[in-house]
Structure to design on (445 residues):
């Protein structure tokens, strides 16, 4: 047969092929340009690697954990893959702002984002998820301290003009063992630096004597004369007598000098008198005058005499006291009692009339037993033209205190005052005696 006859028998048209070719192979056929139709599943081979299938299956599977970052779509700088558009959808490239909008703010129980601060330089982040300025304790100028991990304020320790200030102490309980407390001690209107020891006693801190001129009179244990500093010895009224110390009570345990009249008389007076007036209430010019006085004393003998009288303080006189009512003294400031008084009095007077008396109340009854009562009198007058006199009386046995400030009926600024103290019998024949323990007088010059 001829080639034409063969093609006719095979139903191959002349236009189909010009002739029979060689057997087609994968290498000789371009599947892109020379093949059409659908690949049959049975003809699909098995794939291995990142994309797999079973032989004869057209279902391809991307293996788990094989798609690396380099096979992902590229992302711009400072972007995070996520989605902010509502609903399910394609992954989106998110900005930092979009990302933080998706995250939760932290809580007391879970970590998270920090909320916006609101600006400023003082707020800090609190555990309740808010910014707030640090809260100071107490009032302005009070020193802050750690009180069991809580910020607290010391109400009596302040900063004033960049300097430490000790305010008047309110609580004077004894400090813990092994230390002392520095305090500001208010005494008759004047605040002084002091320390509180473990025995609960407040003791003043003293300035260098190089710039002060204090007068100090001190009773000496077993001595018949005062220890004297800064002024002459006061003149005795009655007999200055050494006192034996005893453990009976505070009075008898205190070093002291007793001024006694030991022979009963209806005009008996015993005590001491300063011989040189040296201080004034206020001053005749700015920056001068004033004083600070602290004295300790107690009635010694004749105390049970119902008409006895007493005065202890300052007066514009150096004369020997007489058996007269203390309240008749002029130009004076002190404590004591007249014959008819039931309680101790504060007595202050200018140059005329009688004293303005302040009854110290039931906590200060006039004593009736020898050598039992011990008192402290503090007086303070500031310098300058404005006169005032503050005072404090303390019963050192009971601890009772009384205080006040006088601005009227005062000795004039031109009237110099001297220390003095005395007791008298008030017209009843009796012995009488006064005990001086100590006297401190600062002229503040």
């Amino acid at each position: 047969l001829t080639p034409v006859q063969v093609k006719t028998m095979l139903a191959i048209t002349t236009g189909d092929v010009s002739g029979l070719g060689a057997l087609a192979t994968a290498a000789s056929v371009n599947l892109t340009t020379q093949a059409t139709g659908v690949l049959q599943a049975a003809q699909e081979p098995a794939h291995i690697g990142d994309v797999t299938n079973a032989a004869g299956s057209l279902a391809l599977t991307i293996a788990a954990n094989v798609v690396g970052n380099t096979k992902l779509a590229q992302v711009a700088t400072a972007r995070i893959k996520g989605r902010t558009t509502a609903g399910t959808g394609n992954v989106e490239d998110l900005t930092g702002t979009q990302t933080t909008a998706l995250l939760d703010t932290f809580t007391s129980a879970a970590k998270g984002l920090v909320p916006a601060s609101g600006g400023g330089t003082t707020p800090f982040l609190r555990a309740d998820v808010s910014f707030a300025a640090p809260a100071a304790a107490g009032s302005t100028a009070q020193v802050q301290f750690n009180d069991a991990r809580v910020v607290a304020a010391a109400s009596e320790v302040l900063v004033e003009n960049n300097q430490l200030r000790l305010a008047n102490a309110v609580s004077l309980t004894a400090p813990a063992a092994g230390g002392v407390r520095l305090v500001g001690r208010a005494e008759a209107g004047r605040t002084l630096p002091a320390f509180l020891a473990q025995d609960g006693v407040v003791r003043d801190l003293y300035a260098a004597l190089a710039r002060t001129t204090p007068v100090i009179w001190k009773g000496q244990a077993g001595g018949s004369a005062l220890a004297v500093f800064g002024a002459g010895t006061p003149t005795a009224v009655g007999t200055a007598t050494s006192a034996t110390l005893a453990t009976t009570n505070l009075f008898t345990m205190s070093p002291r000098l007793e001024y006694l009249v030991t022979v009963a008389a209806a005009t008996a007076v015993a005590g001491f008198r300063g011989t040189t007036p040296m201080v004034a209430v206020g001053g005749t010019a700015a920056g001068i005058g004033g004083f600070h006085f602290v004295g300790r004393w107690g009635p010694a003998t004749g105390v049970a005499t119902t008409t006895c009288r007493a005065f202890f303080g300052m007066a514009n006189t150096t004369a020997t006291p007489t058996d007269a009512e203390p309240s008749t003294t002029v130009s004076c400031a002190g404590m004591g009692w007249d014959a008819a008084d039931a309680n101790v009095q504060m007595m202050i007077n200018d140059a005329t009339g009688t004293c303005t008396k302040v009854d110290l109340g039931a906590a200060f009854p006039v004593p009736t037993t020898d050598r039992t009562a011990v008192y402290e009198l503090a007086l303070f007058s500031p310098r300058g033209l404005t006169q005032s006199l503050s005072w404090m009386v303390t019963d050192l046995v009971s601890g009772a205190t009384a205080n006040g400030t006088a601005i009227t009926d005062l000795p004039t600024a031109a009237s110099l005052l001297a220390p003095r103290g005395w007791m008298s019998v008030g017209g009843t024949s009796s012995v009488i005696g006064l005990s001086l323990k100590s006297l401190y007088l600062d002229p503040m010059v």
Q: What stands out?
A: Residues 210-442 form a domain with the Jelly Rolls fold (CATH 2.60.120.200). Residues 343 and 365 are 4 Å apart (CA to CA). The mean pLDDT is 90.
